């Protein structure tokens, strides 16, 4: 039977370093995703409540390729929307999202800022509220895991210090 040998000090340091890096990565992903989605919510609420609602028209699409899960490539489409401000000046909105199909319709709702009509967002439930909410919820997963691991190590550290009579 093989005799148990405790891990070396260097091994413990490597494990703690890896765990700390993993925890910080998870917390960064969670905080970054939460910040992004809450910032989107704030901008959307501001433009919907203080901006001007107008009709827009999808005039073209920007095409790019995205890699699939199976290793293949799929063509993605990002709509380019034209709209007019209060002074009847034309503006173009390049969407910050894309899909694998083109929209079935060309007419869309656009909200733009009164002072700077070039600041605009596409209206609609999916674009204004649903996707930022989904990103927020998904960012809570790595944040919760990171906080759980961080709490575990902090509790372990205090338990070790209490056992040594330091605290």
From TrEMBL:
The alphabetized UniProt keywords are:
Membrane, Transmembrane, Transmembrane helix
**Residue ranges crossing the lipid bilayer per the database entry:** 12-36, 128-150
Protein name in the entry: DUF3592 domain-containing protein
């Amino acid at each position: 039977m093989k005799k148990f040998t405790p891990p070396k000090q260097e091994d413990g340091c490597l494990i703690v370093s890896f765990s700390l890096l993993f925890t910080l990565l998870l917390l960064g992903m969670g905080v970054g995703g939460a910040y992004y989605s809450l910032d989107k919510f704030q901008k959307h609420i501001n433009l919907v409540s203080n901006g001007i609602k107008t009709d827009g028209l999808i005039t073209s699409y920007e095409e790019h390729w995205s890699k699939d899960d199976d290793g293949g490539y799929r063509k993605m489409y990002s709509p380019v929307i034209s709209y007019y401000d209060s002074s009847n000046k034309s503006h173009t909105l390049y969407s910050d999202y894309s899909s694998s199909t083109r929209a079935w319709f060309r007419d869309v709702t656009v909200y733009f800022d009164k002072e700077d009509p070039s600041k605009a967002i596409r209206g609609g439930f999916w674009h204004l509220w649903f996707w930022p909410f989904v990103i927020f919820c998904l960012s809570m997963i790595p944040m919760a895991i990171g906080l759980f691991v961080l709490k575990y190590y902090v509790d372990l550290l205090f338990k070790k210090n209490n056992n040594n009579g330091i605290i």
